[in-house]
## 1
Amino acid sequence: MSASDVLLWVAVPYAALAVCVVGLIWRYRYDKFGWTTRSSQLYENRLLRLGSPLFHYGIVFVFLGHVLGLVIPQSWTEAVGIGESAYHAVSFSLGVVAGVATVAGLIILIYRRRTVGSVFSATTRNDKIMYVLLGLTLLLGLAATLYGNLTGHPHNYRDDISPWFRSLFYLDPHPQLMAEAPLGFQLHALSACALFAFWPFSRLVHVFSAPIGYLTRPYLVYRSRDVNLGAHRPPRGWERVQ
């Protein structure tokens, strides 16, 4: 285990995680008004209706696939009767579909942002850096997965990358595991570290926002100046208040 291995697979991940956590706390405390997606839906809606669902639904399944593959040990899935061949077949097929949908959606969103004048004018330098890091991370992950399977030598990342990932959170890192992984997966991991370090300072912070208050807030009351409202019974939530 060399010094470069310790730097790349211990220092860099911990530094990225620290910047991400501290940056999120700082931004939430001191930049709540900037905690937004800076939506551009008002400028253009046709391409957005196509690219946004592809990207967002795809990235959700990509995230769930990473949770299953990195967080859950291989011994656990084998204990419930899911062998490596079955796991690989399902994860590869679903992962490729989700990855292609995510990349396709991102391409459409970038094309929209570059070709629609009003959307391009609202694009900041921060947005451009975010798109580069996000696109690079997605492409590297998809390429690493496809390359191994198309060449007939798929890499079982649950033998090395997953244990390395979990060891970071156990505070007992094993950089030698990641040092032996294929180059494509190493580049994907480093790109992900850069993305997460940049995350708190970009529009990506909106993934940590959820309108939970909408579930419990009271109905809004609308009052009409017209006293003749008719006999039609309004739907639930629109009951008339005398």
## 2
Amino acid sequence: MLWPGVVAALEVREGDLLFVTAGRSGLSAAIDDATGKQGAPSFDHVALAAATPNGWEVLHADEKGSRRQSLVQFRQDARAKQRQIVIYRLRAPQQAAIKDAVATARTMLGKPYNTSYVLNEDSYYCSDFIERAFRAHHVFALQPMNFRNPQTGQIAQHWVDLYRGMGMDVPQDQPGTNPNDMSAAPALQRIGVLE
């Protein structure tokens, strides 16, 4: 029994999406600069919670590639970077997609991280990994990628330099995903901060 005013700790469920709050520098700040919404929570990473016989794991794509990680380690990494993890859960109509999405995500493990964010079959970035896991059920939609700051209309120097180094133009308006837009998808409901 809980005492009045005491809130039970949040519990992760199979298929929950774990969004990590954005940092203030480097790639994290550049993602937030281009995709953040004023007055809304700002995220630079998203991962999928999955059950195993040994406890919870997180399936995701980060700078180390498409991989599985224990939920404990994922939380420790977020804490070490002074970031919060916010749980979002699929609404009832989309929950039927969870079993397939987790199975699909497991088949995508081992691929490298996609540093160009241009969709391809050989590498993934975080929200691309999640969108593909749920793609067969049409849970999330691809949309034109934005690298411009919404207030200034300018593409941050971080992106110009990154793509110049790859011998590419900034892929403004090419199809893609990002954690901020994904967190606002109608299929999801915010559950709360994972402590």
